[in-house]
Design a protein that fits this description.
Elements (H helix, E strand, L loop, with lengths): L3 E5 L5 H11 L3 E4 L3 H9 L5 E5 L5 H12 L9 E5 L5 H11 L2 E5 L4 H48 L5
Parallel strand pairs: 1-2, 1-3, 3-4, 4-5
């Protein structure tokens, strides 16, 4: 189960600063250089959440991330923290949030406490998703075993010459 946050903030010092603050708070991170490395990190999976700078994605990258998200199992809803540059581009940010699903929008400049809190909340949300995945898998296995047991005893009963 991944307990690491991917950071995609390719311009400026955002990735370095965010990485330093989160590592200082004991949150594991991985800095990704672009959409290809991000998708690879999500597929491994070495990332259980994403810090995403609004300027990191062009339309094509956003489509790639949308497709990746749509290909995930039903229980999966990757927590994304979208870092914005303030009030400019609010409509675009809301559009990105609507397209990607589980998005929290944080305006820069960020206070370190807000950053760490959002990171921990994202990791807790992803951990709960994995717990739900495990629970569903256990239920499916129990149901399969029950069906097999019922079939075994039904076959046994049907093959007996005398009833009880």
């Amino acid at each position: 189960m991944p307990q690491r946050l991917a950071i995609l903030a390719p311009s400026g010092r955002d990735a370095t600063v965010i990485n330093g603050i989160l590592k200082g708070a004991g949150v594991a991170t991985c800095i990704e250089s672009g959409i290809a490395s991000l998708i690879e990190a999500l597929d491994e999976p070495r990332a259980g959440g994403l810090f995403l700078a609004e300027e990191a994605l062009n339309e094509q990258d956003l489509i790639i991330l949308e497709r990746w998200s749509a290909s995930q199992p039903p229980w999966s809803d990757l927590p994304i923290v979208l870092l914005t540059r303030g009030r400019t581009g609010q409509e675009a940010n809301l559009s990105i949030a609507g397209r990607l699903g589980n998005v929290t929008i944080l305006e820069r400049p960020l206070h370190p406490v807000t950053l760490v809190s959002a990171a921990r909340a994202a990791l807790r949300a992803r951990a709960r998703q994995h717990e739900a995945e495990q629970y569903v898998a256990e239920l499916e296995l129990s149901e399969q075993r029950l069906r097999e047991s019922e079939a075994k005893y039904r076959d046994l009963f049907n093959t007996m010459d005398e009833g009880f």
